[in-house]
Structure formats: structure tokens, C-alpha cells
UniProtKB/TrEMBL annotation:
Catalyzes the reversible formation of acyl-phosphate (acyl-PO(4)) from acyl-[acyl-carrier-protein] (acyl-ACP). This enzyme utilizes acyl-ACP as fatty acyl donor, but not acyl-CoA. It holds the Pfam family FA_synthesis. One of its GO terms (biological process) is fatty acid biosynthetic process. The gene is plsX. GO terms for molecular function: phosphate:acyl-[acyl carrier protein] acyltransferase activity. Pathway: Lipid metabolism; phospholipid metabolism. It is found in: Cytoplasm. Belongs to the PlsX family. This is Phosphate acyltransferase. It catalyses: a fatty acyl-[ACP] + phosphate = an acyl phosphate + holo-[ACP]. Homodimer. Probably interacts with PlsY. Keywords: Acyltransferase, Cytoplasm, Lipid biosynthesis, Lipid metabolism, Phospholipid biosynthesis, Phospholipid metabolism, Transferase. Its EC number is 2.3.1.274. One of its GO terms (cellular component) is cytoplasm.
């Protein structure tokens, strides 16, 4: 399997991306990694050269502040666009980028292409849960507005992802709403509910955002506007809690001693909510596998994104989604 990695995308590119790719290349000999970007900068960072790692030159970079559609259309030799083209032309089976999210979505749509029958691809990151299994949530920002039919497709794709990538037999699918009753919510949620009930998934009803961390669901379906607000709220709350704990546990000599005793448990708790463990969020609904890593990803996150891509490719995630959508029409 061949996995293209946008070496120039992300806050710490290309150094961190190259470091993560090197670790992944050594770990998985069955994966050929294609580092796409400024070849001179990449080569200078390669402390060693595994036989399953290649460098593909791309002369341009899509910056974080670039307008997505304009950047993808004008910067034809940008590392992200070149990686997407490799997937489109069958020279790579998947691509990974920690770069501009909007530009990656545009690359997926304009370069890689949608699965026939999919109206809108969805960004599907994992949200940590208290049991460590996590919950897949989609869409969390690719589409601000969604139709009931879009939510139905998100549910089907999310269920397939958890089955194929995480080995779940009957992933529990919940619809993000303001209450658990069937007729709660706005018109979008009321219209989506019966569609999900009739879908070939294990739909378990509405879910309130306060229950997500308790691991009662495996897939959460929502529109990108509400989903992104939920995600940013959870991230902000987690950061605030860790910051407050650090302040309190370093306030006095006594609390510092208590912190020393609690450190192993607190470290395990913090690791449970570490995004680097999950690696990347897939853009589901494209004809090729496209994964979005966090902009501030470290080498561990890049390596885990490669692991995630390998698992999805081994289980033919894209083919399974295309078949399910085709059969459902």
C-alpha cells in the first residue's frame, strides 16, 4: 500500500512530519510512504532512508491563511494538491495532511472526487470517552449546513468506519440533539430521525452532548455547525480543567506533595484525552482515503495517522462505503 503524506502541512512542518514518517516507515514495512513537498528541505531532515520511503517534489505550499478554493485551483504544485492527485491517479492509495482543513476538503472534492451517490463528504474525528474507546463524530466542520439525507449518509459512513477500522459488530449510532425524545429538536433533526430509524445501522436514538464522554454511543451524527461547536467546547473545557488542576496542585507545598502522589493517575487521565493517540480524522465519502491530522500534530500523531490509514486500506473502507451507498439507492 502507498500512502502520500503532505510533508509541508501543519504547524511544525516539515520537521515533525518527516520524523513521524520515518518512525512509521520503520514500523510498517508493508507501507510505502511518499513524502510530498520541498525535496531539498525534506532530504535535509532525513536522518536515515528506509527503502519504503520516497520523496516527491512539490514546489508550492498552501498556507493556513490561504482561501481554500482559490489556493487549490491556483497552486497546482502545492504539496497537498500533489498528494491528492497521486490518490486520484492511482499512484497512492491514501493521503495524510495536517494542513489547511478547508483546502484539504477542497482537494478531496475537486482533486480526489466524491463517491457516486455521496452528496457531501464528512469530517469524522474521534472524540475521547471515559472508557478509552472514543466516539466517532461526523460531520464536525466540513459542511456547515446539512440536509436530513446528508445526516443519513453520515450515519451509514460512520457505522461502516467503526466496523471496518475498529472491528465493531454493531456500532451504536446516535443523533446529536437537545433531548433524547424522538420529536425533539429543530426541523432538520425531526426529519432525520425517521430516516436513521429505517437505515441499515444500529440507530439508538437522540443523544445530548453532555452524555458523549460516557461512551454510550460509538457514532454521533450532526451537522457541521453544531458538531464543530460541540468539539471546540469539549476541547476548551478539557484545557480549562487541566490548567485549573495544574494551578491548584502547585499552589502550596502540601498540594505539590499531593500532586506527586496523584501524578500517575493524572497522567493516565490526560493521555485518555490526547488527540495524538487517534492520529487523524478521515474525510468520509471520497473515492480515495483522505485523512486530516491536527494542525499541531507531533511525530507520534503523524505515525498514528499512518497506522490508521493502513487499517482502513486493509479493510477496504472506501470500497465498503461505495458499495453500501450504491446498494442503498
Amino acid at each position: 500500500m502507498r500512502i502520500a503524506i503532505d510533508a509541508m502541512g501543519g504547524d511544525h512542518a516539515p520537521a515533525i512530519v518527516v520524523e513521524g514518517a520515518l518512525a512509521a516507515a520503520k514500523e510498517w514495512a508493508d507501507a510505502e510512504l511518499l513524502l510530498v513537498g520541498d525535496s531539498a528541505k525534506i532530504e535535509a531532515l532525513l536522518t536515515e532512508r528506509p527503502s519504503n520511503l520516497r520523496v516527491i517534489h512539490a514546489s508550492e505550499i498552501i498556507e493556513a491563511e490561504d482561501e481554500p478554493v482559490r489556493a487549490v485551483r491556483r497552486k497546482k504544485d502545492a504539496s497537498m494538491v500533489v498528494a491528492g492527485r497521486l490518490v486520484k491517479e492511482g499512484e497512492a492509495d491514501a493521503m495524510i495532511s495536517a494542513g489547511n482543513t478547508g483546502a484539504l476538503m477542497t482537494t478531496g472534492l475537486l482533486v480526489v472526487g466524491r463517491v457516486p451517490g455521496i452528496e457531501r463528504p464528512a469530517l469524522a474525528p474521534m472524540i475521547p470517552t471515559l472508557d478509552g474507546r472514543g466516539v466517532l463524530a461526523l460531520d464536525l466542520g466540513a459542511n456547515m449546513d446539512s440536509s436530513p439525507e446528508n445526516l443519513l449518509q453520515y450515519a451509514i459512513m460512520g457505522s461502516i468506519y467503526r466496523s471496518k477500522v475498529h472491528g465493531m459488530d454493531r456500532p451504536r449510532v446516535g443523533l446529536l440533539n437537545i433531548g433524547t425524545e424522538a420529536m425533539k429538536g429543530n426541523e432538520l433533526m425531526k426529519a432525520a430521525y425517521p430516516l436513521l430509524e429505517q437505515a441499515p445501522i444500529h440507530f439508538v436514538g437522540n443523544v445530548e452532548s453532555r452524555d458523549i464522554l460516557h461512551a454510550e454511543y460509538d457514532v454521533i451524527v450532526c451537522d457541521g455547525f453544531a458538531g464543530n461547536i460541540m468539539l471546540k467546547t469539549l476541547e476548551g473545557t478539557a484545557l480549562a480543567i487541566f490548567s485549573a488542576l495544574k494551578t491548584e496542585l502547585t499552589r502550596t507545598t502540601l498540594t505539590k506533595l499531593a500532586a506527586a502522589v496523584l501524578k500517575p493517575g493524572l497522567s493516565a487521565f490526560k493521555e485518555m484525552f490526547d488527540y495524538t493517540e487517534h492520529g487523524a480524522a478521515p474525510l468520509l465519502g471520497l473515492t480515495g482515503l483522505v485523512l486530516k491530522s491536527h494542525g499541531s500534530s507531533d511525530a507520534k500523531a503523524i505515525k498514528n495517522a499512518v497506522r490508521q490509514a493502513r487499517t482502513a486500506l486493509q479493510n477496504d473502507l472506501v470500497g465498503a462505503i461505495a458499495t453500501e451507498i450504491k446498494n442503498g439507492k
